[in-house]
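Minutes, project check-in
Item: structure for the 65-residue chain
Input as provided by the requester:
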Amino acid sequence: MTSPPPGRYHLTLTSDDRPVMHGWWGSEPVSRAKFRDWIGEHGTLPDARVDEEAGTTLTTWPDEA
């Protein structure tokens, strides 16, 4: 998947290393709220992972050690 265009934020939810869903937002606060919501709604999926990107990865759950 390519990087989001400037001013756009992309979230990706994966489970067992497969994409489950993704979305695009034009607002960082909205994207961060969706990030939090997706963790709450889908965080129990096997090996769930949520990434937020805006050209580069901004946030990843769970945190990478």
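Outcome recorded: The chain is about 25% helix and 40% strand.
No further action items on this chain.
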